[in-house]
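A reminder before we start the practical. When you read a complex entry, don't treat the lines as separate problems. The point of joint prediction is that each chain is placed relative to the others, so the output describes one connected object in space. Small molecules and nucleic acid strands, if listed, are placed in the same frame. In the example below there are two entries. Take a minute to note the order of the lines before looking further.
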Amino acid sequence: MTQPPPSRVRVTSPRMAAVRRGSSRPAVREIDEETDLGHVYMRTLVRSQLRLAALVLLVVGVTLGTLPLVFRYLPSSSTYRIGGVPLPWLVLGAGVYPYVVLLAYLYVRQAEHVERDFAAALDRARGEDPHGTSPPAVRRPSAPDGTRGNG
Amino acid sequence: MNALPLAGIALVTLASVAVGVFGLRISRTTSDFYVASRSVSPRANASAISGEYLSAASFLGVAGLVLAGGADMLWFPVGYTVGYLVLLVLVAAPLRRSGAYTLADFAEARLGSTTVRRVAAVLVVAIGWLYLWPQLTGAGITLRTATGLPTWVGSLVVTVVVGTVVASGGMRSITLVQAFQYWVKLTAIALPAMLLLAAWHQRGAVDPLPAGVGWVQPYGARPTAHGVYQTYSIMLALFLGTMGLPHVLVRFYTNPDGGAARRTTLTVLMMLSAFYLFPPVYGVLGRLYTPDLVASGHTDSVALLLPERLVGGTAGQLLGALVAAGAFAAFLSTSSGLAVSVCGVLDQDLLRTSATSQRGRRGTVPGFRTATVVAVGIPFALSSTQASLGLADTVGLAFAVAASTFCPLLVLGIWWPRLSSTGAVSGLLVGGLTASAAVLTTVLHLAPPGWPAALMAQPAAWSIPLALLTSVVVSLATPSRVPAHVARIMVRLHTPESVHVDRRVASTARRSPGTAERGVGDRTSRPGDR
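Here is the predicted structure of the whole assembly.
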């Protein structure tokens, strides 16, 4: 499917590159047709979401996950009292819940942000971004047009 | 004297049936029947998920565990809640976007293999039954404690009510019932807890958590070398098992899109957090006022008995009736949700002949009703055998099986394109067999005490990694069994609905008529697609 390279190149304007970026192919079609570029878009999206999920799980693992060890090897932590309530009861009985809700809230906000960036990047790739303020989350690779369709 | 709790239980039961039958008028076609037409608002959906999730284990079991086991047992409600955080970050939105209605649907859509579908279906039914069993036992305990009737009566009442509601109304009515029951349960646990605390304060506020008592300290009640192992294993089972519970996944299908699935989960987390503040209160006060339950081993009834012991008089009886009604709401809602899921799978995958399923229909309403009888009949039979495990322990085993089977399947299926159908089946089998063997060993008390018993009672810490590893290694060894359409599946799972990509999976993947039909239907009903 590789097109033969163009026989000659004529530079008609210094703004050639800018024009070429507003390609006639909508970015969504790259994904639909499973081109290399489409795969790059998808991989970027999936990786950012996975990185975000892993971060939340890491935070949970480091905070909640070490509590059993703290209670086991730092006995003073489980006899310490706040307002008459021993620390383990306060932490596990009440403190964990607002903490978990906060993590969930931050995650949802960030995950939606990633998705908005993805949608905006696709729109920009098609040259339809009216705002153009935020930097692109998904960059177009600098592969020449001719390689498309090989994926 | 027994009239008040009985009246409370009867009221909740009648109200559930009434809401259920009212819903019947709306649910007409098979698609309405299964998925509530996706017209359930996010907040109602979150109430429904919470209402469905807060089971006998949460309502009575947590209080009983804290009474018996002290500080260590606080990990149970924490785990039940954090399970939703893990579900939120790993599966909520992609699962909704997959368009799968059951775990079996997801397995088939992702891996394009009917074998995976069958194995997943069998596991859904097994987990459902394992989870239904303590619900029915709990109903028996509640009715016995409240009225003195034999245990099987309570189990039978819940079995019949759930069977009727599920068979007549389908999911639409279930959604309304569940949403209603979350608020019943929150009221029934929170109001008595606050009044009990007030009564405790009035009686001189004796410190229920005195220093130097082993029960108050972590690892104090069961000072064993494997305490740390057991705590971590429980955490893993509960954190990772929630996503594999069959009745939880069904609810996500009712969300209009992936973003709504996330926001619904966030609301669920808030609702569960509010609820779980209260059950430990009963366990802690129980140490002061119902110490005899620890000796007799009937710790699961502490929440039911405490109001009468601590407050006494008519007020105490009224509060006791409220708790009993709430507990019954818990059995009814969780059992209904489980029954719907088990029925769906029995009806679509296991009972129906292949000839009917190849006609390209999603099943008939009478078929669903036959499946209901099977779905609730077997756990009722199980519950009439005298189980020797606590409510929360049995539920914990259901979590362990779910975490060892569906957690690897979902996480790898959503995030790892190289998962092959052979790898998925191997993982499901290894996780399912090891965890079930551990469950059987524990229920029948076969393991020698010490480390073997501890490893069998809490298998999650070794069975989940084993299943995960099996899936990964076998997948890497069988790259030819990775479905050809995996790239398109990834697009479908992860792209936000605002991006108008083609979400249909290539025709080679449409082995199941149900999947194909849903693929198309999904597209037309998405608000983002115009």
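Discuss with your neighbour: Chain B touches chain A through 52 residues (CB under 8 Å). What might explain this?
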